[in-house]
Amino acid sequence: MPRPKPISGFPEFLPADRMVEQRVLEIIATTAELHGLASVETRAVEPLTQLTRKGEIDKEIYVVRRLHAEAGDADELALHFDLTVPFARYVLENSGHLHFPFRRYQIQKSWRGERPQEGRYREFTQADLDIVGFQSLALHHDAELPLVALEAFERMHRDLGLPPVLMRLGNRKLAQGFYAGLGIDDPSAVLQRVDKLDKIGPDAVALLLSEQLGMDASQVSAALALAHIRSTDPSFADEVMQLGVENPLLEEGIAEVASVLEAVSAQFPGRIAADLRIARGLDYYTGTVYETELVGYESIGSISGGGRYDALASDGKNSYPGVGLTIGVTRILAPLLGRGLLSADRSVPSCVLVAVDDEQSRSAANEVARSLRARGIPSEVAPKAEKYGKQIRHADRRGIPFVWFGNSVKDIRTGVQEQADPTTWEPPASDRRPTIVHRFTA
To answer: Which residues contact 76 (CB under 8 A, 6 or more apart)?
Structure first.
């Protein structure tokens, strides 16, 4: 059988890199739970009609069919392209069993059939944070989710060495009110094109606005001027007002941005900034929107985004407005791991390799390993009763720091060997589990 070739867009990590991913997922989960978010998992497939209900994403969807499907089978199914639309369906189905505001985090894979490139994959892991209300949801939740996400990112920065992040804050009400104040009939169409600024640049966006939407030169100039306003403090509001546009929705959006910016900056100064070009491409966002980048690695693109959605989940009688934020775990890690900037210092979780004198004494070695594991020390027994030198080399190749010989343990990095009892011996805290090492430049 020939060696199989990897499938483009479906990344698979080697064990040391997978350990980095697991540590990141652990940080996200524990941070979310510290803030009272409950874990949720939804099915991998949804009806195709449900997935294409909102936004411009139908070309990215993987359709799922049974090999022997017959005409007249149930609704056509597709793999979910994000976790927000499935979560909206989950809330509607289970609303009678949920307590609102419902606080959720969800870590799962998603699938998109787009062209693979760095930062964009066909199969990827996402972590979603959401707070959903019944009929209404207070504005302070728009600030709460960035606080959860930024706390997780700060832990990744401190504990794993990932670069710091900058969260950019926008608001659909602000943008739509501004465009409406300019006399534009379809603000959403402008939002969709302004959202392409980072990809195609201001000149190309100006051309789209004028040729596709028929905006005149003054409208185009004002729209681009709004999109270039950035600030880490409330001064952004003055810059908006200086553009001379008035609209009640615009004023509401300005107030919302100022409220979120003030609350988040108080805890994470310098990690969030108002950036009025941020609109998000999907049309279910109705207010606050977020985009986040790794500082110094902006070429990867947005690693986290989301916003307020007031009408995503509704059964026609009741509505479930919410605010959500996605962390693109694979989008963050695959480029960094691929460049060799992150890894674990060993390829196995084992802290100790228990040497075997001969096969007759393997049961004794197994008992030593059992005693160590009972106290949370990851251990494995040597696969062969070889010469000690070969068993030490086996441990060294895998990055295992300690080898256990009878009644003693040896740190093979330093050569220090000492008497030890498997029921009481403790390794240094830093060796108990693999350490994440990074090679980022300052």
So the answer is: 47, 48, 49, 63, 65
**Contact assessment for residue 175 and residue 226, using Cβ atoms and an 8 Å cutoff:** yes
Q: What is the pLDDT of residues 356-382, one digit of tens each?
A: 999 999 999 999 999 999 999 999 999
Q: How many CB atoms sit inside 10 A of residue 74's CB?
A: 7
Buried b (16+ CB within 10 A) or exposed e, 154-169: bbbbeebebbbbbbbb
Can you tell me the distance from the alpha carbon of 299 to that of 284, in angstroms, rounded to the nearest whole number?
26
pLDDT per residue as tens digits for the range 215-260: 999 999 999 999 999 999 999 999 999 999 999 999 999 999 999 9
Q: What strands, in cross-sheet order, belong to the sheet with 322-328?
A: 38-39, 102-111, 123-132, 322-328, 304-309, 288-294, 165-171, 272-275, 230-231
The C-alpha atoms of residue 134 and residue 305 are separated, in whole angstroms, by 23
Which residues make Cβ contacts (< 8 Å) with residue 215, sequence separation at least 6? 184, 190, 209, 223
- Rounded Cα distance, 322 and 87, in Å: 11
> What does R_g of the chain's alpha carbons equal in angstroms?
26
Does residue 319 contact residue 135 with C-beta atoms inside 8 Å? Answer: yes
Q: What predicted TM-score, i.e. pTM, was given to this entire model? A: 0.92
